[in-house]
Amino acid sequence: xxxxxQAIRGMNDILPGQSxxxxxxxxxxxxxxxxxGYQQIRFPIVExxxxxxxxxGETTDIVEKEMYTFDDRNGESLTLRPEGTASCVRAADQxxxxxxxxxxxxxxxPMFRYERPQKGRYRQFHQIGVESFGMSTPDIDAELIxxxxxxxxxxxxxxxxxxxxxxxxxAAAREAFKAALVEYLTQYKDQLDEDSQRRLTTNPLRILDxxxxxxxxxxxxxxxxxxxxxxxxxxxxERLQAILTANDVPFVxxxxxxxxxxxYGKTVFEWVTTHLGAQATVCAGGRYDGLVEQxxxxxxxxxxxxxxxxxxxxxxxxLDLIPDAAKDNTDVFVVSFGEAAEVQSFVVAEQLRNAExxxxxxxxxxxxxxxxxxxxxxxxxxxxxxxxxxxxxxxxIVQVKDMLNGEQTSCATTELAGYLSxxxxx
Length: 426
Ligand code: ATP
Ligand code: MG
Known about the structure:
Layout: H1 19-35, E1 39-40, E2 46-48, H2 49-56, H3 61-66, E3 68-71, E4 77-80, H4 85-94, E5 103-112, E6 124-133, H5 138-155, E7 161-167, H6 171-186, H7 194-202, H8 213-219, H9 231-246, E8 252-253, E9 267-273, E10 281-287, H10 291-294, E11 302-308, H11 309-318, E12 332-336, H12 339-355, E13 361-363, H13 370-380, E14 384-388, H14 390-395, E15 397-402, E16 408-412, H15 416-425
Parallel strand pairs: 1-5, 7-8, 12-13, 12-14
Antiparallel strand pairs: 2-4, 3-4, 5-6, 6-11, 7-9, 9-10, 10-11, 14-15, 15-16
Helix pairs in contact: 1-5, 2-4, 5-9
The chain binds adenosine-5'-triphosphate (ATP) and magnesium ion (MG).
């Protein structure tokens, strides 16, 4: 036997049993975003490297050290998408969807970042992204946040997540703040952690995000971003807060919240949880009014967010919030003995699938004696087992075994769907 090839580190298989949770989450999201008029967009997993360099920003962690970049056979530099926003802008603009109109879009799919794999952090992970274009007013920021709150409610997560909000102002405000921050921090350079020292020249805003205790101590006396926010951004932020408050969406203002991607301005937000350890953010986003133009399109205001699917699945599992109906359960297991009964068992199984699309009907394949087939029925977890032998075929009936209490009754084939519907659907 040859050596087995293993999966790439940090890239996970989603196995049967887990996939039903993913489907449940994806289905719930699809239903919620659709109820707000968002339409799905799909774009490739690979793009020209330049898209992310220009979109996400040269000095971000993502572009500096996390991208899967390679030359294709023409020597062109391509990158596995590390996030969806830049691709979404590229695709929507290329199709002429951004000119003189508004768009509400969403997508789901794998993203790739060369990070240190750990719980909630992987090299291939999945995001569900929601982006809106052509609207500059805070009502659309509010709509997106209210949409996420509805999703958490639907999933039973609302009480387990907290909304953190901030405004990082327009570019000029951030530049002024950056200058002041760098001037202040440079005096204490030796006390900063290594990453923060490097960021002093590349991406100083991200220093606010540092988890290092000493760095945080130095930051206590640092100039505050709040004092640099322009009036327009402040008014935008206040209106957003007013709409959220009026809609009973609680939030906390975190003046240190900055995002790791360069395109954000004005509103930024994160939904965080205390249940996942260090990988606490399950959903993050904000406004990015400059990105479309930066990528060569006409200036178009935009705001969006992305959720980490793995983290949400982990959270749902940790809190035991997956409804039974979402699990991959067998409802009816069908066993048969003898050739005529085998044929009839197909007829019966098809009849049930016709009657009720939601039922999972598992017909035993491969023959075997009574004991063996009943063992399989037990193992399947089915609520009911249908038993067919030649006598049942002759009489036009099936034996129905209730696997909960072991009781067995015979039922006319013609009445079977009605009987099971009564039992299973209540
Ligand atoms: P983090 O601070 O956790 O690294 P980020 O700021 O890099 O997150 P974004 O790029 O804004 O995150 O991505 C949005 C969401 O996607 C995150 O909040 C998280 O839920 C998820 N996410 C990001 N990177 C990973 C990863 N490597 N593995 C799993 N999920 C991820
Ligand atoms: Mg990250």
